[in-house]
Design brief:
Blueprint: E1 2-5, E2 8-12, E3 18-24, E4 26-27, E5 31-32, E6 40-46, E7 49-54, E8 59-65, E9 67-72, E10 75-82, E11 85-87, E12 90-91
Antiparallel strand pairs: 1-2, 2-3, 4-6, 5-6, 6-7, 7-8, 9-10, 10-11, 10-12
Length: 92
């Protein structure tokens, strides 16, 4: 369950155990992006940078990218803008 405290987001499980501290600017709802049910992911934002959490609340793409989106299949695109050019793509 995604919660908000003092304008920051975190994640608790159904038993009320803290999984992700309330220190993120935004956490998307967990979505089943890929074919496997266990492949639920949430895009997270902190300090205008983006990363990706898996369903176990582990960060699987570091929060260091200017842009992150689901592309299709098992592919997410994580990019940084350098001199107005995009770089880096990541497959999960």
């Amino acid at each position: 369950m995604i919660v908000e405290r003092d304008g920051k987001n975190g994640v608790y499980n159904s038993q009320g155990k803290l999984l992700i501290p309330c220190e993120y600017d935004h956490i998307d709802d967990f979505m089943d992006y890929c074919d496997d049910e266990s492949d639920n992911f949430a895009i997270i934002e902190k300090d205008k940078k983006y990363g990706l959490l898996n369903y176990k609340c582990n960060i699987v793409i570091p929060i260091q990218y200017d842009y992150l989106t689901y592309f299709g299949g098992d592919l997410f695109i994580a990019q940084n803008i350098v001199n107005l050019e995009l770089s880096t793509s990541i497959m999960i």
